[in-house]
Amino acid sequence: MTESPWIRRPRKVPDARIRLFCVPHAGAGPSFYARWLTELSPAVEVCLVSLPGRETRFDEPPTEDLGFVASRVASAAQPLLDRPFALFGHSMGALVAYEVAHRLPYDPEHLFVSGSPPAHLPSGERSIAHLPDAEFLAEVRHGYGGIPNSLWADQDLIRLLLPVLRADFAACERYRWPGHPPLRCDISALSGAGDHYVPPSALAGWADLTSGQCTTRVIGQGHFNLVSDRAAVHRFVRERLGLVPATEGARHD
């Protein structure tokens, strides 16, 4: 089977119980989830969504159309739906994962939405994609974090990253919920404490978008808890996929 550039499978697991398609946040490439390949679970085949303009697709122009991205990812995923599957997306990736779920022939086993307000509600964030370069980058750096200071100091690298960041932010700002019917799968919504972009109180709104169960969880700190608290996020994912017993005393909001 010829693999699509939209989905990478660096570590194929022939006897995997489930495939997990992971969608990165704005400006990020599939390597953001590289450590998930070996750290998440031997029962999971982690498939990495790869978007234009980054890493192996650097020479391709990024797109500002989130619906187009979701359609292409869904098309690329269909040959891989021969076993149970789930979707995980962080920030912008959560919106993409949600839209992918609506473009597949049947619902995933589970949808994980991390660091994102519910797709049908306004985010409350002001638009920044149109700002001049310096102002736009300052907003990204101070408002969201996630990019190490060492990378900010590399101005050549930042200039290369800028078109992708700007396109991704524009895609999110232009996104409007199409009025989808509820999904039938369970949704797990998570964020980090102190994430101003998606406060814990906002997570419960994802329950409106499924007829299944919606579980919310606050894990670690900040918008990029997937980095600082990766092990705890992995435990939560394993729990929700039924690969381990529910954590004693786990917080469910």
Describe what you observe in this structure:
With about 250 residues, this protein is an alpha/beta fold. The protein has a single domain (about 5-240), classed as Alpha/Beta hydrolase fold, catalytic domain (Rossmann fold), CATH 3.40.50.1820. It has 9 helices and 7 strands; from the N terminus they run ββαβαβαβαααβαβαα. The chain has helices at about 35-40, 65-75, 90-100, 135-145, 150, 155-175, 200-205, 225-230, 230-240, and strands at about 5-10, 20-25, 45-50, 85-90, 110-115, 185-195, 215-220. The protein has a 7-stranded mixed sheet with strand order 1-3-2-4-5-6-7, sandwiched between helices. α3 links the parallel β4 and β5. α2 (about 65-75) crosses α3. The longest helix has 20 residues, at about 155-175.
